[in-house]
Specification:
This protein has helices spanning 2-28, 45-61, 82-95, 107-120, 151-163, 177-192, 211-220, 231-243, 246-249, 263-266, 286-299, 305-323, 331-339, and strands at 31-38, 65-66, 69-77, 100-102, 123-126, 143-145, 168-174, 196-203, 224-228, 252-255, 274-277, 342-343, 350-352, 358-368, 371-382. By secondary structure, it is α/β, with parallel strands linked by helices. The protein has 2 domains: 32-148 and 283-356, 3-Layer(aba) Sandwich (Rossmann fold), CATH 3.40.50.2300; 151-277, 3-Layer(aba) Sandwich (Rossmann fold), CATH 3.40.50. Strands 7, 8, 9, 10, 11, 12, 13, 14 and 15 form a 9-stranded mixed beta sheet that branches. The chain has a 6-stranded mixed beta sheet with strand order 2-3-1-4-5-6, sandwiched between helices. Strand 4, helix 4 and strand 5 form a beta-alpha-beta unit. The longest helix is centred in the first third of the chain and has 27 residues, at 2-28. The protein starts with a helix and ends in a 9-residue tail after the last strand. The relative contact order is 0.14. The structure holds P-hydroxybenzoic acid. P-hydroxybenzoic acid (PHB) binds at residues 44, 105-107, 128-131, 150, 178, 230, 257.
Length: 391
């Protein structure tokens, strides 16, 4: 009886305190409504979660606000399904009235989101999807990206593969924008350096029945293989490549998504793989050290490139919100500030190109244990060519 009464008193004190707090925040500032449209199921589920964690970590570091505003989240699992993308994004904009869309991982889904963003003049920050078009022919004042183009890391790998003496490469990936454009970036740098692509192999997204392709690679006997895979599918691919005996005979290269956040699930099969990406384990900047320590404490796991991109999406939004203080979310003022932003990222500070895509170092990394250890810089301050962007 007494204990129950005690609990009630504690609860009501907490309620009063909470009421005061909420009132204080409401008086101090407007809200910003953030629509998180990300995959929380399927082969890219872990990627969506890492982006969400990173975004929320930055907001938490600002005391739960961005640019002095309370952040209200509206969350949709987009399942990495382009067929559902327009409806999902429209719901966030029209029903929930979000001020900004943040998403997504899958290039095909992001292209549909960008169309909704353009049609409704909603601010969009892309924290992963590399679709070259978003900061190419479909670039727009209200569309920003804190991640990469599919071309960027793959271009870095094409150069590295040629430098390592390979002449004749087979590529394998999922047949959709991300895979095709990664192969395009690799091919551009590799051929420029005198290499040849012997064959481009494709399977539908998100299939993981790799056996027939591995048999074909074994028959073709190229100098090396380049792939784009990510998430759960990447772990399965590397395990299969190793089990087929190919890892010992034909070097495997990839955009670093292959091994980011997936090394544990590879159970050792990823050891020694060389990849290129705009993030690495073993960077020595102070921002990365602080970011990683906090991430490990908050989420009981190590961050990866996706967490970094989510964190930086929140940083970029904050720059926009700071420009309008507590007042109306005037897009021209926000956009102007965001275009000029220098983001103090755990990957190393970066600025945005005219097309709103990061200009960033592409690191060469080697998988060692649970880490993608920094080996060197494959491309310094690499800007996507942004072909077709008129802005
Ligand atoms: C993409 O679809 O653009 C994509 C997905 C997963 C990645 C990278 C790019 O890790």
């Amino acid at each position: 009886m007494t204990r129950k009464k005690g609990a009630k008193v504690v609860r009501s004190i907490a309620a009063v305190a909470l009421g005061t707090l909420t009132l204080g925040a409401a008086q101090a500032a407007e809200k910003v409504k953030v629509g998180l449209m990300l995959p929380y199921t399927g082969t890219y589920a872990a990627l969506g979660t890492a982006i969400t964690n990173g975004f929320k970590q930055y907001v938490a570091e600002q005391g739960g606000t961005l640019g002095g505003r309370e952040v209200e989240y509206f969350v949709v699992d987009d399942e990495s399904d382009p067929a559902k993308a327009t409806e999902n994004a429209s719901k966030l904009v029209k029903r929930d009235n979000v001020d900004v869309l943040v998403g997504t991982v899958h290039s095909g889904v992001a292209l549909a989101m960008a169309k909704v963003a353009r049609d409704t003049k909603t601010l969009l920050i892309v924290p992963n999807a590399g679709a070259d078009e978003l900061t190419g022919p479909l670039c727009a004042p209200n569309v920003f990206r804190t991640s990469f183009t599919n071309w960027q890391p793959a271009y870095g790998m094409g150069k590295v593969a040629a430098e390592r003496g390979h002449k004749n490469v087979v590529t394998l990936t999922w047949k959709y924008a991300a895979g095709e454009q990664a192969v395009g970036g690799f091919k551009e740098a590799f051929e420029k350096a005198g290499g040849k692509i012997a064959k481009e192999l494709y399977l539908p997204f998100p299939n993981v029945e790799f056996q027939a392709y591995l048999t074909e690679i074994a028959n073709l006997k190229p100098d090396a293989v380049f792939v784009f895979f990510a998430g759960g599918g990447a772990a399965k691919f590397v395990r299969d490549y190793d089990a087929a005996g190919l890892k010992k005979t034909i070097p495997l290269y990839a955009s670093g998504f292959l091994t980011d956040g997936t090394l544990d699930a590879m159970g050792g099969a990823g050891e020694g793989l060389l990849t290129t990406l705009h993030y690495a384990d073993g960077l020595t900047n102070a921002k990365d050290t602080a970011f990683r320590t906090k991430y490990a404490t908050s989420y009981k796991m190590q961050p990866d490139v996706y967490a970094v991109q989510g964190y930086d999406a929140a940083q970029l939004l904050r720059v926009g919100l700071d420009a309008v203080k507590g007042g109306k979310l005037e897009q021209p003022a926000m956009i102007k500030a965001m275009e000029a932003a220098k983001i103090d990222s755990p990957r190393g500070a970066f600025t945005l190109s005219k097309a709103h895509n990061p200009v960033q170092d592409i690191y060469l990394r080697k998988a060692e244990g649970r880490d993608n250890k920094l080996v060197g810089v494959a491309e310094k301050a690499l800007a996507d060519p942004a072909r077709g962007c008129r802005m």
